[in-house]
Design goal:
Blueprint (H helix, E strand, L loop, with lengths): L1 E3 L2 H4 L2 E7 L1 H13 L4 E5 L12 E6 L3 H15 L2 H10 L28
Length: 118
């Protein structure tokens, strides 16, 4: 179901993700398979049929934490390298290459990726 995002549509539903229609539909289907009901709404200011239209994935406010956890896990399943990246970052390592980096380093001394954006 796609609707305009308004107080009537919104109610006890909260947005957890904004993206393209195809990605929001994919995430909505995934959540349904995992037992989390969701709705899809046009983002404020968007009109149906415009090519750069953005959509919101809405879930009941009581399910928002479960929805976010399921979305994170789904991304990890699609992109297993993300799990390593998150683990490296938690261990003060470069999320791109795993090189040990200092706590306030602005870039990785090994691969040169920017770590902190001013």
């Amino acid at each position: 179901m796609t609707a305009q995002l308004s107080d009537e549509t919104h109610g006890d539903w909260v947005p957890v993700k904004e993206d393209s229609q195809s990605l929001i539909k994919e995430l909505s289907d995934m959540l349904l398979e995992r037992g989390v009901e969701s709705r899809i709404a046009l983002a404020p200011g968007c009109q149906a049929g415009t090519c750069s239209c953005r959509f919101h994935l809405l879930v009941h406010k009581n399910d928002s934490q479960a929805a976010l956890e399921n979305i994170d896990e789904y991304y990890m399943e699609l992109h297993p390298e993300m799990r390593d990246s998150h683990e490296w970052a938690a261990q003060d390592k470069c999320p791109a290459c795993g090189f040990d980096v200092e706590e306030n380093a602005k870039e990785c001394a090994d691969c040169g990726i920017t770590l902190i954006v001013d």
